[in-house]
Amino acid sequence: MSSIQAYTGSGWILTKAEELINWGRKRSPWPLPYGTACCGIEMMAALAATYDMARFGAERPSFSPRQADVLIEAGTISKKMTPVLKRIYEQMAEPKWVIAMGACACSGGMFRTYSTLQGIDQVIPVDVYVPGCPPRPEGLLFALLKILEKIEKDHPLRELAARNGLEVCK
Amino acid sequence: MSQQTLVSACLGDMVVSISEFVGDLTVEVSKNKIIHALEKLKSDPSLQFDFLSDVVGIDNLGLHAKKAKAPKKDEPQQEAAPDAGATLPRFEVVYLLLSLSSNKRLRVRVAVPEDDCVVESVTGLWRAANWPEREIYDMFGIRFKGHPDLRRLLMWDEFKDHPLRKDYPLEGKNEERILNYLD
């Protein structure tokens, strides 16, 4: 365990607050499964026993955006569906991350038509793109690991201070 | 008696043309008589086309030029061909009927000119026509007179265009609103 460089003694532990927060966040990236097409099936496989995404802390697929951390957008988003996706993203509490799973979510995929959104990054920020049509469950697990790496490099307190206009000691 | 003669006899002078291709019987009926014709096909005791599988729309735009060009490649004579293509209507509505008792199918076509995009709704005969007719209205802009609830089926309500028309681009026409709404 590298992120907590702690001095340990009998009954106490010393670490940096930011690293403690990241340590906690990294261990419970609750996913919001948003399966809109065949990628959703691969996502279910990744969540189920054989691949078992729970090994990486994605223990509880959260079907409510309020309790979710990672939005897994698995599948095609039609233009009619776009406001729904945007609203679901907005309902998620900070901090939140987004995985665009599959060609359709990344770029519209083969559906270059009047009805398909050409990549969900047109409306919401995306952290990790997973190519493939559909990607294998390993691909999604890899994306989740990338999210965990990203969480590890995060500076939640510095960002909080910056948002509130506080000066940060270097 | 063959199915073709039965249908011809049932519809009488409502038939514009009737043809069979690889076992599929197609009959074209004039637009103002469509309800009457389908009603007859449904109730005729020897035909009993009582099941409506689907209603679909066709846009023939651009087909005029193709049909006129096609014979030039194979045969040098090209007197009749261009005229045959030019008489194509802009739109067509096709009713796919099935007789549950004889398991026979029939295609009924109606020509819909661009300046008069209105067809009588057949929802009175088959309630199954409700959604297909809404879809045709959504995709081609053909209106159905007497339809109980003629709203768009697939595109969002504020959408103004009809995307399956051949003059509609691949994407990016009148779809901006849904993205602008988000900001």
Description of the molecule:
The complex is a heterodimer of chains A (170) and B (183). By secondary structure, chain A is α/β, with parallel strands linked by helices. Chain A has a single domain (30-151), classed as Rossmann fold. Helix content of chain A is 35%, strand content 13%. The longest helix of chain A is centred in the C-terminal third of the chain and has 16 residues, at 137-152. Chain B has one domain (3-61, 91-180): Beta Polymerase, domain 2. Chain B is built from six helices and seven strands, in the order H-E-E-H-E-H-H-E-E-E-H-E-H. In chain B, strands 1-2-5-4-3 form a five-stranded mixed sheet. Chain B has a two-stranded parallel ribbon with strand order 6-7. The termini of chain B are far apart. Mean pLDDT of chain B is 83; it is low at 76-85. Chains A and B meet through helix 3 of A and loops of B.
Précis, in short:
Chain A has six helices and six strands, in the order ββαβαβαβαβαα. Chain A has helices at 17-26, 39-47, 82-91, 102-107, 137-152, 156-163, and strands at residues 7-8, 13-14, 31-35, 70-74, 97-101, 128-130. In chain A, strands 3-4-5-6 form a four-stranded parallel beta sheet.
Mean pLDDT of chain A: 88
* Overall spatial form of chain A: globular
Largest sheet of chain B, in brief, is:
5 strands, mixed
The beta-strand count of chain B equals 7
Q: Strands across the major sheet of chain A, in which order?
A: 3-4-5-6
Provide the β-strand percentage band of chain A: 5-15%
Sheet with the most strands of chain A? 4 strands, parallel
Count helical runs of chain A: 6
- Overall spatial form of chain B: globular
